[in-house]
Amino acid sequence: MAVTGVGLMTPAGVGTEETWQRICSGRPVAADDPELAAAPVTLSCRVTGFDPRTHLDGPRPWRHDRFTQFALAAAGEAVRDAALDPHGWDGARVAVVLGSAAGGVGSYEEQHHKLSTVGQGAVSPLTLPAFLPNMAAGQLAIDLGIHGPVLHTATACASGATALATAAMLLDSDACDIAVAGGSDAMVTPLCATAFARAGALARRGDDPAGASRPFDTDRDGFVLGEGAGVLVLERAADATARRAPVRALLAGHGSTTDAHHAVAPRPDGRWLRDAVEQALARAGAARGDVDHVNAHGTGTPLNDRTEAAVLRELFGSNGPAVTSAKGVIGHTMGAAGAVEAALTVLTVQRQTVPPTANFHTPDAGTSDIDVVCGAARPCSVELAVSNSCGFGGHNVVLAFAPAATARGG
Questions:
Q1: Residues 261-273, mean pLDDT to the nearest whole number
Q2: Which residues contact 46 (CB under 8 A, 6 or more apart)?
Q3: Nearest residue to 6 (alpha-carbon basis) of 399, 341, 280
Q4: What SS3 class is residue 13?
Q5: Which among 309, 296, 322, 323 is positioned nearest to 270, based on CA atoms?
Q6: Which residues make Cβ contacts (< 8 Å) with residue 301, sequence separation at least 6?
Q7: Which domain holds residue 161?
Q8: Where is each Ketosynthase family 3 (KS3) domain found (predicted)?
Q9: Is residue 409 situated within a structural domain?
């Protein structure tokens, strides 16, 4: 499938180019968050500089939860980037697939607080359209006049990647000609921060926010909670060529598996993550040795990084592809992560540059045999790249991307 448009709304920047430049700089955005003052961990990676009144078209954007606002802004950029005009397309042949781990959890928390402290009369009549997880996809369809399949995917932190794989399957099955797909989440809330902290998942370097998120480093102790959205426009390669669309890269393959092991911990031997990688490569018509780059899930938690590194070592050997994790810069954007990182992988393939992994200094015994890019962005020939995503519940989703000039992909 051809990737003809990219849209990003992340803690690294408002828009694709600003995000890419900050990711390539390797400068973390994590900071102490006053809105989390009552939570056990007060660090977050928030999207700053975003004003829905100026970054969104249409009336009354305040009606939407923040996760929907992010999705609409990222999708708008992606559609413009693809040189598509929603006023001129056949909406019945356009699909939307958006993933989210939690939907409008911020709106839910706010309205529940009003119910508990003030009473029924204080609860907004817009509560349900704000927090229901499908509403980002539904609102995007309303705004752009889309009448094809409109779906929400929920595979925790793999949700955005699942959305992209689902969109590719819709295109393969001729259910649509254009798919606007990705993920969005805004889980930087007191309840979510407290829950993740209680589960032992969050980094706790309160005295060093910028150094808190440390993917693959020996001193890693968890992730930093983030937010944002990533959206791609996908089309069949032949259709993109026929309309002379700008093609950034090809989604050449995808794979999805489930550990069926534990609610929140990865299966230690990484068996099913490995199988997801192999599925993606098989669909791309590629071999292990063809992979030049891995955009890792790389959360900075002890278990995830150890397991993922072992899988990469098993698949590619000790002299394997260049590996990076964007979470060192932008934290963990939850259900948006798979789509945000897919977009960054597209840019890596297009620009032949692998961004660095922020805060990676010293590997441990479990992460020492993979080539983690650090310090500075690395110019590199990337003919095939994979982006890994994993989620609570044991979900594993892998996307494979190739340059637009290659024959791989559909």
A1: 96
A2: 11, 31, 33, 188, 226, 227
A3: 341
A4: strand
A5: 309
A6: 201, 220, 221, 222, 223
A7: 2-242
A8: 1-403
A9: no
Is residue 408 situated within a structural domain?
no
Q: Decide if 98 contacts 181 (C-beta within 8 A).
A: yes
Average pLDDT over the chain, rounded to an integer: 96
pLDDT tens, 153-181? 999 999 999 999 999 999 999 999 999 99
Tens digit of each residue's pLDDT (9 = 90 or more) over 339-359: 999 999 999 999 999 999 999
Residues annotated as catalytic are 157, 297, 332
Instruction: Give the helix/strand (H/E) hosting 87.
Output: none
Per-residue confidence (pLDDT) for residue 304, from 0 to 100: 96
| CATH classification at residue 307 | 3.40.47.10
- pLDDT of 45-91, one tens digit each? 999 999 988 888 776 788 899 999 999 999 999 999 999 999 999 99
Is 50 exceeded by the pLDDT of residue 408?
Answer: no
Alpha helices in 134-260 (DSSP H): 135-144, 159-172, 190-198, 237-242
Q: Give the pLDDT of residue 406.
A: 60
Residue that terminates a domain, selected from 242, 277, 312: 242
For tokens 């529940």, name the residue. Answer: 112
pTM across the whole model: 0.96
410 within domain boundaries = no
Q: Report the domain count for the chain.
A: 2
Residue 369 domain flag = yes
The DSSP element (H or E) to which 349 belongs, if any, is helix 337-351
Number of Cβ within 10 Å of residue 182's Cβ equals 36
Q: What is the structure's pLDDT at 203?
A: 97
Asked if 140 contacts 75 with a C-beta cutoff of 8 angstroms, the reply is: yes
User: H-helix or E-strand containing 250?
Assistant: strand 249-258
Q: How far apart are CA 252 and CA 2, in angstroms?
A: 8
Are 393 and 258 spatial neighbours (Cβ–Cβ below 8 Å)? yes
The answer to whether residues 168 and 234 touch, using CB atoms and an 8 Å cutoff, is yes
Residue 409 binned pLDDT confidence (cut-offs 50, 70, 90): very low
